[in-house]
Write a structure and sequence with these properties.
The complex is a heterodimer of chains A (573) and B (199). With 573 residues, chain A is mainly α. Chain A has 16 helices and two strands. Chain B is built from seven helices and no strands. In chain B, α1 runs antiparallel to α5. Classes of the chains: A mainly alpha (573), B mainly alpha (199). The A-B interface holds A 1-2, 5, 8, 114-116, 118-120, 180, 184-185, 187-188, 191-193, 218-227, 229-230, 233, 237-241, 256-257, 259-261, 264, 267-268, 271, 542-543 and B 1, 3-5, 10, 13, 15, 17-18, 20-21, 24-25, 27-29, 31-36, 38-39, 42-43, 46-47, 51, 124-129, 132-133, 135-136, 140. The structure holds protoporphyrin IX containing FE (HEM) and copper (II) ion. Residues 274, 277, 320, 323-324 of chain A line the site of copper (II) ion (CU).
Chain lengths: 573, 199
């Protein structure tokens, strides 16, 4: 059945069918990957411009200054645009599409032994919806109104009146739709297309993580879609969903019916956006789990508790959203409820992280590039998670809310956390995807500076935040007396950021060099147990595998006593 | 190689792919309308006592009642269309699907007159928060109906006969899955009707 699969569908595919409008999950995964990496780079560049402004307020931006008009100095509105677009692009166009669209699409079918996703056409539709959403988002820079400038959180009433927001909302509706299509597909694929013998507890952690993530996307994104529709109505149909009666702007009462509430937006937004942060972190946890097991040559410690914790995290992430809103004057009872749930949700995160640390114990660790990134992920995510606790308690959050401390907190989880895990994943699965190995030297040249500069950027944010410096200040706090003691850090952070950018050069070089001149890889270069390594590298178009796949064992059977090698693939009977 | 469980059910889950897919899609739709319903509750609690009732009294209960009956009938005929396929009677299927399409056009027409009646009296989404949420909820619902009509017209076109001849079971599954969507859209209206018109 497999040997003649190539002449199964006889017609030759054209270039367009094969590479552009393909329905093969691998091609779509790569499309997602390339697009989202470009968006990450773009989002990073926006941030680099902002960081220049913060370090050297009022001076000309080098290289790209001419874009910003006379003198090349960033105006405050421009700074706000860059900030809003940085957040939006990084989260909705960069990390989620990379973690779920690219990794999920490429690897989930392979890890469950399937030939493709359950709905290949829907899969392509999901990518193209994402692409259109991205184009719309970027095009807003060139519109007469400019790009959105009300933050990635788009709080009304400001967002209802600020320029650029309409395009932002329309683009978001595309991006949300794309996520919905993609995640539905992943759920159905995992439930329906597992090969014989692959029971739930034999699924690898990565696939489990994608499964929970997809549920979060399916259930949490629609309320944001609803909120986006309401905000769009406020902007184009003159409704007052988010506008209270008697709203005063520039000294005049705004001419709207009123009766709405800005808090309604915050509730709808955070009801999505808290689960969203777990969408950002769960795939990362999955990737790190795979790489740790593989490079410690040991089964993951506490596999089942990790799986249950992921599921529990998924459930709980729906009942903590108002910890972003402690300062909105909610009552004691509400506040107590959300503080409690926030403390509860940190337990499964700690369980997962602890299990990963314990998995290292007694392993014979191979320090290759994917493993270095995965190892660095652990303490970085640890810092991010632990700094979340004071934010989850109203007493300390009242002081810390909307300061650079919050920025430090979530960047530690997302940047040296999730992004490191995604790098680890790229280094780890690159041989599978391309059939070529990446250079270890360049990989280490990428890893060490990235680790140092990441911390150089984000650690001082805690210091500034504790000193009370607010986020979203176009001048970085120069006009505030209380900030003066910690502003010297701005230059340090900005230089770290520029160096972080430079540290990505070895990575980019590595990708292209390995692609063309890299050492050929066999199908299982890391001697791994999971099913994707049973496919040829790269996997065959449309059918993935060249042999019948049946699963006989759990995901991480490394160093089994008495076995002839130190790993037994899941497919081995 | 084809993707499995498109037609026959997977043994341990008892499902075909598209049926699981539509249930998950509907779960996300529940969250979408759930978000809007909670917005309704939020706005109603924020309004002065009596305001929402006063604003809601502008709506036409008779028109909405007729529309409720029309939509429920369309759901019934949708089931009949699917049942006809199960009994391998394609011409009956066409008749029942035709009735469903007809009902949806009646619904849209009545809705059109309702909306234009409001506009004629200078009532717009911007008039007050009730009208804002009324137009948003029913507008989104109408979009769902229009989406459904497009799909039904596709299944009504002559190519449907070819699909049926080629893969009768897959075609029946498609109608069943679409039917689930259609019943959901109907169900949303059954919530909207009392919430917006009667309460
Ligand atoms: C593990 C325990 C965690 C706790 C207790 C926690 C708690 C919090 C709290 C209370 C806030 C609101 C702070 C404020 O605005 O005053 C916050 C903000 C945030 N957290 Fe976490 N968090 C945790 C983990 C994570 C993870 C894993 C991620 C993402 C991968 C994340 C991403 C974010 C983001 C993006 C924000 C800021 C949103 C904004 O205002 O722009 N957090 N966190
Ligand atoms: Cu949160």
């Amino acid at each position: 059945m497999y040997s003649n699969s190539n002449n199964h569908d006889h017609h030759e595919e054209t270039f367009i069918q094969k590479y552009i409008f393909s329905v093969d999950h691998k091609v779509i995964g790569i499309q997602y990957g390339i697009t989202s990496l470009l968006f990450l780079l773009f989002g990073f560049s926006l941030m680099a411009i902002m960081r220049w402004q913060l370090a050297y307020p009022g001076t000309e931006i080098p290289i790209v200054g001419f874009i910003f008009g006379e003198g090349g100095v960033l105006a405050s509105e421009q700074y706000n645009s860059l900030g809003a677009m940085h957040g939006t692009i990084m989260i909705f166009l960069g990390i989620v599409p990379l973690a779920v669209g690219a990794f999920g699409n490429y690897l989930v079918p392979l890890q469950i032994g399937a030939i493709d996703m359950a709905f290949p056409k829907l899969n392509a539709a999901s990518y193209w919806t994402y692409f259109v959403g991205g184009v719309i988002m970027i095009s807003s820079f060139f519109m007469p109104e400019g790009a959105a400038r009300s933050g990635w959180t788009s709080y009304p009433p400001l967002s209802v009146f600020e320029n650029g927001q309409t395009i932002w909302l329309i683009s978001m509706i595309f991006l949300i739709t794309s996520s919905l299509l993609g995640s539905m597909n992943i759920i159905v694929t995992i439930v329906q297309l597992r090969v014989p013998g692959l029971t739930w507890m034999r699924l690898p952690l990565f696939t489990w993580a994608q499964f929970v993530t997809s549920f979060l996307l399916v259930l949490a994104f629609p309320p944001l879609e609803a909120a986006a529709v309401l905000q769009l109505m406020d902007r184009v149909a003159g409704t007052s969903f988010f506008l209270p009666s008697g709203l005063v702007m520039s000294g005049e009462i705004v001419d709207v019916a009123g009766g709405g509430s800005p808090l309604l937006w915050q509730h709808l937004f955070w009801f999505l956006a808290h689960p969203e942060v777990y969408v950002l972190i769960l795939p990362a946890l999955g990737i790190v789990g795979e790489i740790l097991a593989n490079n410690t040559r040991k089964p993951i410690w506490g596999f089942k508790s990790i799986v249950y914790s992921m599921v529990f995290l998924g459930f709980c992430s729906f009942i903590v959203w108002a910890h972003h809103m402690f300062l909105t004057g909610m009552g004691q009872a509400m506040s107590a409820f959300f503080q409690t749930t926030t403390m509860i949700i940190s337990i499964p995160s700690v369980v997962i992280l602890t299990s990963y640390f314990l998995s290292l114990w007694g392993g014979s660790i191979r320090f290759n590039t994917p493993m270095l990134f995965a190892l660095a992920f652990l303490p970085m995510f640890g810092i991010g998670g632990l700094t979340g606790l004071p934010l989850g308690l109203a007493a300390s959050d009242i002081y810390l809310h909307d300061t650079y401390y919050v920025i430090g907190h979530f960047h530690y989880v997302v940047a040296p956390g999730t992004i490191f895990a995604l790098f680890a994943g790229i280094y780890y699965w690159f041989p599978k995807i391309t059939g070529k190995r990446m250079s270890e030297t360049l990989g280490k040249l990428h890893f060490w500076p990235s680790l140092i500069f990441m911390n150089g950027i984000f650690m001082p944010m805690f210091i500034q935040g504790l000193a009370g410096v607010s986020r979203r200040l176009a001048d970085g706090g120069v006009s505030y007396a209380h900030a003066s003691g910690v502003l010297q850090w701005n230059e340090f952070m900005s230089i770290s950021a520029f160096c972080l950018g430079l540290s990505q050069i070895p990575f980019i070089v590595n990708i292209f060099m390995s692609l063309f001149t890299g050492e050929k890889s066999d199908r299982n270069p890391w001697k791994s147990t999971t099913i994707e390594w049973a496919a040829p590298s790269p996997p065959l178009a449309h059918v993935n595998f060249d042999s019948e796949i049946t699963v006989h064992r759990t995901a991480y059977e490394y160093s089994v006593p008495g076995a002839k090698e130190d790993f037994i693939p899941q497919t081995e009977s | 190689m084809d993707i499995p469980y498109v037609v026959e059910e997977r043994e341990d889950t008892g499902l075909i792919n598209s049926k699981l897919g539509i249930w998950i899609f509907l779960a996300s739709e529940v969250m979408l309308f759930g978000g809007l319903f909670s917005a309704y509750i939020f706005l109603r609690m924020a309004a002065l006592p009596g305001d929402f009732e006063r604003w809601a009294s502008e709506l036409s209960v008779p028109m909405a009642t007729v529309n409720t009956v029309v939509l429920i009938s369309s759901s019934v005929s949708m089931v009949m269309a699917w049942a006809s396929l199960k009994m391998k009677d394609f011409s009956k299927y066409k008749m029942y699907l035709g009735i469903t399409i007809f009902c949806s056009f009646v619904f849209l027409t009545i809705k059109y007159f309702e909306y234009s009646g409001k506009f004629a009296h200078d009532i717009y989404p911007s008039s007050n928060t009730f009208m804002a949420i009324y137009f948003t909820l029913t507008g989104l619902h109408v979009l769902h109906i229009i989406g459904g009509v497009v799909v039904m017209l596709y299944f009504y076109l002559p190519i449907s006969h070819k699909m049926w001849d080629k893969q009768p079971e897959q075609f029946t599954n498609r109608i069943e899955v679409f039917g689930l969507y259609w019943h959901f859209v109907d169900l949303v209206w059954i919530f909207l009707f009392p919430v917006l018109y009667l309460l």
